[in-house]
Write a structure and sequence with these properties.
Layout lengths: L2 H18 L2 H12 L2 H22 L5 H17 L47 H9 L3 H7 L4 H12 L4 H8 L3 H17 L13 H16 L2 H7 E8 L6 E3 L1 H9 L9 E8 L2 E9 L6 E12 L2 E8 L2 H7 L8
Parallel strand pairs: 1-6
Antiparallel strand pairs: 1-2, 3-4, 4-5, 5-6
Helix pairs in contact: 2-3, 2-4, 3-4, 7-9, 8-9, 10-11
């Protein structure tokens, strides 16, 4: 290998390392845009590939980070064209239990999917309030609300409200005017206001009291102790089960389901799976029909509020989600 060839390889390695440093923050941006960790991962990979191929034309005309966000935005906008928006069950109809035989199952492409914190750069900000805001902006309800917006409005709101870019910076990224950015931001805010999802309040971290509440929930669910669960679940709690479009509102409805059509969850085990979308999650394993151990059933994303468990989202697509969260395929 000659000196020139060695220098080229070293420069390529440095470029790859530099691009890779932006992967996690770009993943967070693409996830908010697309509502799926799998699509976000694909979009980031395409972004970094395009950047690597065209870096010689970049020539430092703008900050590398801004350039990568410009590429990522175009990749996401291309991906969003001509497809139905992702949602949560609460976005599709009123609450209410149904007979299991009549439940409607929609394809996975229709649902907002959870993302593990290990894929995101939620702790990058120095300010604790900014870190809390970053966690809040990936909550399932907020990500679902973002999917209501047209693609460019979605990008403007994320860049301005979540990432704190200035209107001039966003205008340059989108090749438009500051007035157009401000107009898009105003329309996006109005749409979120109408959906009741305009708030981006700081999400508190799991303090010892909340951690203790989660441990009590885990123990009560594994024991299927309805009396204990009644004390832990808030009266106004919500439960949903993607890919089914049914959702339940209120502690009484949730517990009626658990002792009725959901009685198959009795005897389940819960395995902590870290953090997803700003809150804690568990892998739920039901007793195996083979009689040996427990098999994957759902990923439970648990949101806590004042006074107890506020929302339980049980994602049933374990074939996709359990490997993503590092959960085993079987418990002996």
């Amino acid at each position: 290998m000659g000196p020139m060839e060695g220098s080229t390889l070293a420069a390529t390695a440095r470029l790859e390392d530099t691009l890779e440093q932006h992967r996690r923050e770009l993943t967070g941006y693409c996830y908010r845009m697309l509502g799926s960790p799998f699509e976000a991962e694909d979009a980031v990979q395409e972004t970094l590939l395009r950047a690597w191929r065209s870096h010689e034309r970049f020539e430092g005309r703008s900050a590398l980070r801004s350039w990568l966000y410009k590429i990522a935005t175009n990749v996401c906008l291309d991906s969003l064209r001509g497809r139905a928006r992702r949602a949560m069950p609460m976005d599709l109809g009123p609450a209410g239990a149904q007979e299991p035989a009549s439940l409607t199952m929609l394809p996975e492409s229709r649902w907002v999917e959870p993302i593990p914190h290990s894929m995101l750069a939620l702790e990058a900000a120095a300010d604790p309030a900014e870190r809390a805001l970053a966690r809040e902006s990936v909550r399932l309800a907020f990500v679902a609300a973002l999917q209501r917006l047209p693609g460019r409005q979605r990008a403007v709101l994320i860049l301005c409200e979540v990432l704190r870019w200035k209107a001039g910076e966003v205008a340059e990224l989108l090749d438009t005017s500051v007035a157009a950015v401000n107009s898009a931001l105003q329309r996006a805010r109005a749409s979120l206001d109408a959906a009741g999802a305009s708030s981006l309040d700081a999400l508190p971290r799991l303090d010892p009291a909340r951690q203790e509440l989660l441990e009590r929930y885990m123990a009560a669910f594994e024991a299927y102790d309805i009396q204990a669960l009644t004390k832990l679940i808030r009266q106004d709690a919500l439960q949903s089960m993607p890919p089914y479009d049914m959702w339940l509102q209120g502690r009484e409805s949730i517990l009626e389901w658990w002792v009725g059509p959901g009685i198959g969850c009795r005897g389940s085990r819960l395995l902590p799976a870290g953090m997803a979308n700003g809150t804690a999650c568990f892998g739920q394993y039901r007793i195996s029909q083979s009689g040996s151990g427990h098999d994957p059933w759902s990923l439970q994303v648990i949101e806590l509020g004042d006074g107890g468990v506020a929302a339980i989202t049980t994602f049933l697509n374990t074939e996709r989600l359990f490997p993503l969260f590092g959960l085993p395929a079987h418990l002996d």
